[in-house]
Amino acid sequence: MPNSLVVIDDLVLANRILYRLGVVDGFGHVSVRHERDPERFLLARNMAPALVTAEDVMTFALDGTALGDPRAPYLERFIHGSIYRARPDVGAVVHSHSASVIPFGVVSGVTMRPLFHMASFLRGAVPVFEIRDAAGEDNDMLIRDGALGDALARSLGDGPVVLMRGHGSTAVGRDVREAVFRAFYTEANARVQADALRLGAPTFLSDREALRSSESNAGQIARAWDLWSRLVSETG
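Above: the chain's sequence. Below: its structure in token form.
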């Protein structure tokens, strides 16, 4: 039950784009739900995102089991499977450790909220997953089993992004292009919000502004994707 080449090509390109934009480095990963079987998803083998090719893509069941592929998978593949189980509307997942996001998951009393229109999909305070609540103090910060993946999915709820205390963030979308768009502009919002907080008290988007703006932006994602694809092509 193979996926189309378009889906696999977009998954490979998403890995390269996220690296080119500085959202991932040697670590982080992006997946897509199998387009013909919603109980499966596609994710590269355990490797640096910038090096992913179509041949590196593996197929997984939603419990994180690799299907007919002996290669080493990402340790945190359970992030993806648990979210796909919990969210039938999600078609792609991006997990990253982008540095600008980290402070908003570790500083008490400071929440990430949409500060400019390109991050309007956030719509209110972004939730923070506290791994100690699910794994206790004796943990290595990684989502390395289904129980922790399920706990992360509960923190995400029906939102687009969840921060992970001391770890990073996870963004979701209806498809891989939307998930990449959200991962990038979550990082951008973190940078802008940190700058604004140094100046004073920011004025955030209202819920209505965020809703209207995100509806407008949803039709413009291809514009960003085309640019990012060109950047990747030009840099090899």
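The longest strand covers residues 168-173.
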